[in-house]
Specification:
Two copies of one chain form a homodimer. Chain A is an alpha/beta fold and 628 residues long. In chain A, 28% of the residues lie in helices and 25% in strands. The first copy, chain A, has five domains: 93 residues, Ubiquitin-like (UB roll) (Roll); 71 residues, Ubiquitin-like (UB roll); 138 residues, 2-Layer Sandwich (Nucleotidyltransferase, domain 5), CATH 3.30.420.480; 168 residues, Nucleotidyltransferase, domain 5 (2-Layer Sandwich), CATH 3.30.420; 94 residues, no CATH class.
């Protein structure tokens, strides 16, 4: 008996001489990666001898390890025989089930175990005694490593199969999606890549990921190239009523996706053909238009999607220019206005698996809201309109350079201080700025609970004045702006904000009503979307956009939709969970819900007609002014 | 209680008034076809009221039956209510499981039950209460009729789905391959078509079939357009070593297949897009080249095919111009020189399901031979060379106009009588003529057992003479031929025939040897291939091409390969059996078999060195002349 110590764990074991290092490691509870089943063909169970002696270096080891590695003491644990006491170092990359964690906002940790994997396959050469066909030869060689009894392949792979296996001397590396052969390469190829894509109405992002460890190796992004054909979804859907226009919008977004994946690949220094899978999230209209599916009926009651469930296509069939045989996975959509971006939020934040009662809101033109936990979830889409994104507001704009994004108004003097994106002269106001300015106008008593600008202050302060469309509040004077005009908040603007916030609040209320709970029962609130990262949560509660919930329960989760695409890409368990989400998520059509109208009207006031719902705001923030 | 009589069976039943005709028919043991489950939407359970009264004609019946049909007493049995005694006629097309029989040669009867089927689907209109997606809406509507819980579809179908179901007012006809949607049409489409294709080295045939009844509705055929690139397989495989040449040959045969399917469709008066499935047989080289699979290694030991098992492709993926989403099914191949044409023979003749010990031979450049029954089958490919097809014979030719196909030689005078194809002056001799002439030369004692032309007869008869390449026998004088030259059989020709027939006989012997049986144990011999239909079986035994077996056990089965493609097209059971055949069929590599050389040499003599194997020939046909 001799003693073997494994580093860095320090695990020690007594074994008989003659045992393989791999066997000793297993006995010691060290899990080594040996996908070839100990044949010495995959080279993945590499260890380093630190002290002591092992058996002679075998031919397989000379083949799989470089001169430098051998000089540094590297061996294959499945071939190296223990000859006496020794200390063996197990490098991180040789460990089985290496757990990589992806955390951003409230995202849950995910074990990297993608559907796309690379397997080594060493095929016996054909002979008169063994003249099975090339397909079966490859299938048999893969069965041990991949766990798939049978394989499938595309005609283009089949056409090249006899050449590929012979040119590579029957030693190949096979990239597989489930049991489908996506690529056959020489045995040096050990790795493959994927891309997770978020197609937003406004922006699109692609995360290029190394599928061996789940790391993001490159990111590409751009504005959605469909914007010239309509700022909002309804405009783009209407434009697509004509099939040739749908074709145009579809081509634009497909080309856009190709461009951002390509940009990510360039940053990662890999060819785009090495991408073997893409996962995609987007709202339902983007999902349909991307696939070229006629989207007209998304815009007409009862707003049926054409397809809800997760679907997969070969890249070449939908024009995606990664490996043409690679898989494109579309996460599921829930309803005409609750898309796979929202499923991505649920998936990445584990709402469907958590015991915590979670409220997640993605604020945009449509506010998608989900409420629930592992038992059941309900969701709805609140037609908030574009006010909270800066549209339909007189000086509203996107969150771009020159946008006012933070605002303070001094009570009494009504002096305004603000910050702009890029620290330049203001040219407009974006979503987070709009929420701030309304909250500040409430706190400074510029407006009352009904959102009326108190014209009675006109004589006291020149920021309050009558404009073309009724009373308005001057945020900044022309001389200090980048547009040489006064930037103001109008009465109409306030009305738009009221409509938006009451739609979202009413949606949230109805979900709580259906669940039979109140804000007190909510364990966590997740604000998703790029916009969600920038808004001031207290101000959002001050104006009554969000229900009153302790701040420590509220989190911005950033682009959780994109995270959903990423976890789906790197984890087959998460991929499977998409179906569970679809099963346990009930969609509520707000417009036809009995109490929607009442809830909506009640939520029009700032923060709400029922002030008992906003006790904390009243106690700590401001006392709402009653209507005149 | 009233009495209902069903015609033409005459079955009588007493039932309560108010019962549906469909229910009464079921009770009487009459099986009516009602794929829509009695909803009145498919119109397939039509019956005719001959006497008596039924309930009022319903709206569904007015929709599904024409004015003429209604006037003739037609009703839907699922809607018509029995009101009193009546006599009802069930037309043949309304019967369930209508058994159509396809018999040609030794083919077994097949029940028509194709993989491609048309189902009627009536979808509930979407509403706010029922806003499921279009896909699930179709899936649910199909589940009842089709028995498939879930469906799949191509992106191109999905793109059109919302338009198709709405334009057709939620009442559609769906063509499906297994659970895959191949076409969505208006509800008047009740039928679909398929094509069975046999790609021979020399000729190609397409049978267009009505999949509702398994009838052939049109046939197209042409010479294989690859012929200019090589008469035989080896030449075409060699030509394909260069990938661009493979591409060329592949395109030629794909275009050829499209042309003959199109020809069949024209004869049937249907558009080629209404073809929803194609089944294809061919030898292994034709199979590979058709699919564009690199065929080089078929020609090099150990002659591995790239793929053996049955495989399916979407028509558009391999360039077949039927419904682009239609399925192309390739029957399996067995070895480099035993192709799916041979599997087609086994499949259509039920060799794999019969208790009878069957020997089936497809004579061509390679003679594919199978021996076995339901328990197990063994097969081999005998390299016969092209002599028996008329090639490599001085005046040999294909079975075309002017070919001598039947020959008699008068013993003593050696007067030759013959028949030519097309009854014109002879211009050469085809395979069946070659077998005849050798048998007749043996019977007339022109040649001895070694195949030597008895030059000692030279002085007695001017038909025997010394030519450029040794002695020869004059079949016809120049003045009577279409080529103005004497048509002769040379010593070299006889040698070629010896090589061919001994290869096939040796193959047959080795299969029997492996099975441990003799010719006596063989229950039936099937001669397949167009050539097989024309040869004189007695003469084939006389020269020792076939083992001596009672004539009543021998059958020509014509193009049984093509029949294999047809039964695979119309029967999913037969399709399934292809895999059983592959499992129970062992391939023997003749060239490396221990006793091949001995068997081959022994079979060189006419009919064989061991004359005890040909007792009947010697007793009834002729006494072989010993060598000089």
């Amino acid at each position: 008996m001799v003693t073997v110590v494994f580093e860095p764990s320090g695990k020690k074991i007594k074994v008989d001489k003659g045992l393989l290092v791999l066997e000793a490691a297993n006995d010691a509870g060290e899990s080594l990666d040996a996908p070839c089943g100990g044949k010495g063909t995959c080279g993945k169970c590499k260890i380093y001898l630190k002290e002591g002696v092992l058996g002679d270096i075998t031919t397989s080891e000379r083949k799989k390890l470089s001169e430098e590695e051998l000089a540094a003491g590297a061996r294959l644990s499945c071939k190296a025989i223990i000859k006496g006491d020794c200390i063996i170092d197990i490098p991180e990359e040789s460990r089985l089930g290496k757990q990589k964690i992806l955390i951003e906002g409230a995202e849950a940790p995910v074990i990297v175990n993608p559907l796309i994997k690379v397997f080594s396959a060493v095929l016996p050469s054909p002979s008169l005694e063994d003249s099975k066909c090339d397909w079966y030869r490859l299938e048999d060689a893969l069965a041990d490593n991949s766990g798939h009894e049978t394989i499938t392949m595309d005609i283009s792979t089949l056409r090249q199969l006899p050449i590929l296996i012979r040119d590579n001397k029957y030693d190949v590396s096979v990239t597989m999606y489930k049991n489908h052969v996506v690529a056959i390469n020489d045995s040096s190829v050990k790795n493959t890549y994927g891309a997770a894509v978020d197609i937003g109405t406004t922006t699109m992002v692609a995360y290029v990921m190394d599928l061996s460890n789940g790391e993001i190796v490159g990111v590409g992004s751009m504005m959605n190239p469909q914007i010239p054909y309509g700022d909002d979804l309804m405009a783009r859907i209407s434009y697509s009523f004509k099939p040739e226009n749908l074709q145009k919008l579809s081509n634009l977004v497909v080309e856009g996706v190709n461009k951002i994946i390509s940009e990510g690949c360039e940053k990662a220094g890999i060819p785009i053909e090495s991408i073997a899978e893409v996962t995609i999230v987007g709202n339902t209209a983007m999902h349909h238009i991307f696939l070229g599916i006629y989207p007209k009926y998304l815009s007409l009651a009862p707003y049926c999607p054409v397809v809800k469930q997760p679907i997969d296509f070969m890249a070449k069939d939908i024009g995606i220019s990664i490996n043409p045989l690679g898989n494109c996975h579309m996460l599921p959509v829930v309803a005409g206005f609750v898309g796979s971006d929202h499923v991505g939020v649920i998936l990445s934040c584990d709402i469907h698996k958590s015991p915590e009662m979670t409220l997640a809101i993605d604020i945009g033109t449509n506010g998608e809201i989900v409420l629930g936990n592992e038992d059941e979830m309900i969701c709805c889409s609140a037609a908030a309109g574009p006010a909270l994104e800066g549209s339909s507001i007189k000086f509203g704009m996107r969150a771009a350079n020159g946008a006012i994004e933070r605002v303070k108004i001094k009570r009494g003097s009504l002096k305004v201080s603000y910050e702009t994106i890029g620290n330049i002269k203001p040219i407009g106001i974006c979503g987070s700025g709009i929420i701030d300015v309304v909250a500040e106008m409430l706190k400074a008593a510029v407006i009352d609970v009904t959102g009326r600008i108190r014209e009675e202050l006109e004589d006291e302060n020149d920021r309050i004045r009558e404009g073309d469309q009724g009373y308005e509040f001057v945020l900044e004077w022309a001389r200090n702006t980048g547009i040489k005009r006064d930037i103001v908040i109008t009465s109409d603007d306030l009305r738009e904000v009221q409509l938006a916030k009451s739609a979202i609040y009413a949606g949230t209320s109805i979900l709580m009503e259906i669940k039979g709970i109140t804000a007190k029962n909510i364990d966590r609130v997740l604000i998703a979307g790029a916009f969600g990262s920038y808004i001031d949560i207290t101000n959002a509660m001050t104006i009554g956009l969000l229900p009153e919930i302790p701040m420590n329960k509220v989190k911005s989760v950033g682009n959780a939709a994109g995270s959903g695409a990423r976890v789906s890409l790197i984890s087959k368990d998460k991929r499977e969970e998409e179906k569970d989400i679809l099963k346990n998520l009930n969609y509520i059509e707000l417009a036809t819900h009995d109490s929607f109208q009442d809830q909506f009207v009640s939520a029009m006031n700032f923060p709400h007609s029922d002030l008992s719902l906003f006790k904390n705001v009243m106690k700590n923030v401001y006392t709402p002014l009653p209507p005149k």
